Task: inverse folding
């Protein structure tokens, strides 16, 4: 899964924007020896969320790979009616 930050003028900024350097990869490889292994499978989303709440993906650099993503970002517009009393109470 890749997350993007939508920038003004319609551009998108990926959360992770570059490959690691060789030094970074070696450093994290050493760190990898000291972390819990990623389970082969999670029983459910809650189990996966609990694991990743306690672990950092940067501790597992060799478990992920860079992929090229081609996507068409769509601008979405939502209108939500606000009760007149609620709107005037907030000002």
Result:
């Amino acid at each position: 899964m890749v997350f993007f930050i939508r920038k003004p003028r319609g551009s998108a900024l990926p959360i992770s924007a570059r490959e690691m350097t060789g030094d970074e990869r070696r450093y994290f490889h050493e760190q990898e020896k000291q972390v819990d292994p990623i389970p082969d499978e999670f029983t459910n989303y809650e189990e996966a969320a609990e694991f990743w709440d306690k672990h950092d993906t940067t501790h597992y650099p060799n478990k992920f790979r860079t992929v090229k993503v081609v996507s068409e970002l769509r601008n979405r517009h939502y209108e939500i009616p606000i009760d007149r009393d609620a709107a005037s109470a907030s000002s």
